[in-house]
Amino acid sequence: MVSRLVLGCGSVGRTIVSALADRPGDVLVVCDNEHRIETLRSDRIDTHRADPTDPGTLDDVERPIDVLVVASDDPDINRVATETAREAYPEAFVLAYTGKEPSIECRLDIEANADRVVESAGTAADDLIERIGEESMRPRRLWRVLRSIAGPLAVVTHDNPDPDAIASAFALKKIATAAGCETDICYYGTITHQQNRAMVNLLDLEMRQLEGDETEEYDGIALVDHSRPGVNDQLPEDTPVDVLIDHHPPRAPVEARFVDLRSDVGATSTLLVEYLRQLGIRADETVATALLYGIRVDTKDFRREVSTVDFEAAAYLLPFVKDSVLEQVETPSMSAETIETMARAIRNREVRGSVLVSYIDDLHERDALAQSADQLLDIEGIRTTLVYGIIDGTVYCSGRTRGTNLDLGETLRDAFEQIGSAGGHADMAGAQIPLGLLGDSDESELSDIVHDVMADRFYGALETRDEGRPAPVETDGGEGEGSETPSEGPVDPGFEIGESGSGG
What we know:
The protein is of the alpha/beta class. About 40% of the residues lie in helices and about 20% in strands.
């Protein structure tokens, strides 16, 4: 719950208090005007009659303060109260009214200690509330949480992190370092996609690959670009989380000391740019280059789910970006194994109308699924692809779609969330399903069962979403020849119910 303290209550203060009275959170007004105090109390506003410039007055306030408003009509009172407020609550958001006809020196002193300044008593109430709204308060809350972490912080990306996750993690590390919090960037899985490897190597990004529960040595945990421990990472599901920042809000509620889940931006990197700017922390060349690449990848070069905020973030980063490094990251060489994996996906393809499903046997690199799903989407007549394979007892799949009204992220959730977890963008999504007891099955038998389950659930979800009943199966020789049409009824091979990540 947001806690607000108002020091002094002139014309601007009364406007703010009236506007805040019906909003969530509590408000305490400190004022030495007896008539104003009585009026506020008659309106059931919590008040305390005292000198708003006296430091001892703030010592008597027995509650944490998120937002502090200085709002007397007297400029000199506001100057002293703002300075007192900043000293007493260094992490609170301070909105200060200059007062009526302040001197230049007085106004400058107020501006030096306030986060936002109001210079006109005629400012509309809605505008005042906007100035102390959620957007302004988020950075302060994040800062306060980071400052409270006594020991090292682990910023954990999702498994096999992509550029958006990596960039977001390093931006959060920069903020945490400024807050005096020692920080490591951690991840599970591997970084196999050639562009992701190039990004890490060329920018010399130091990351710690985790195995098992190695986070016990950290006093704080932050999640970026995913929102639930144990879902698309290998943390225990009951891991307490301090900071959570993602642009893919999950269907179920999540818990953390600080939570920022917003789906109105195209990348988590965009959210981190916002924090850097509002906290006055300049993005260095490395972080800026990583963030810009993260935004470009997740918005598909500003063509997918992009918002005005994404463009503004990119424009802010451009002066700090190292163009030569960015060019090398975008054009890395591709390994022979990746090319061979994509070739197997092409040979194993199964087509129903405009939908293509393919299984990659002997999968070693999870990122090859996404690259194969992208490549198969270029086949004439194909509008939607799903490519899957098995690694270490888990089925991973990546999907792509274009030129349709299909929300692929929601479709994969419908298809696989009961037996695993899934999600992502409208045109790019993924899922992972633990095999459970089937992991001991014969390899050829296991492939058939997994294929039946994956295809049946995926096509069923497509039909439910009114994408039209698929046409008869077409097979294309090679390793995929002879594939049977998935059964029309539901198939339940005993997959273990569990949660593990989403993404493309």
